[in-house]
């Protein structure tokens, strides 16, 4: 399928594409092209559909909090590691 942008840079997707994939997309710039990836209205529902029952019964806020805590630990560990390497 080939589409052109209008004077404001907008791309209009055909109705059948919107009905199949939805109205929200993530634009990903790659070295040789641009790709559109559909975004679920509820990203957690999309994640649950992708990974099955791995998050069965988990609350979205709890998942976010846990993810943020893990990221913070990883950042602290990396910072500590870099600090130790500089001291050596």
TrEMBL record:
Write the record's keywords in alphabetical order, separated by commas: DNA-binding
Its recorded name reads AbrB/MazE/SpoVT family DNA-binding domain-containing protein
User: Which organism does this sequence originate in?
Assistant: Natrinema longum
Which superkingdom, per the lineage?
A: Archaea
Molecular function (GO) terms for this protein are: DNA binding
């Amino acid at each position: 399928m080939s589409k052109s942008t209008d004077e404001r840079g907008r791309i209009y997707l055909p109705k059948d594409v919107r009905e199949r994939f939805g109205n929200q997309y993530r634009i990903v710039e790659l070295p040789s092209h641009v790709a559109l990836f559909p975004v679920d209205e509820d990203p957690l529902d999309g994640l649950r559909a992708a990974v099955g029952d791995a998050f069965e019964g988990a609350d979205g806020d709890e998942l976010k909090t846990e993810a943020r805590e893990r990221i913070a630990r990883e950042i602290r560990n990396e910072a500590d590691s870099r600090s130790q390497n500089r001291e050596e």
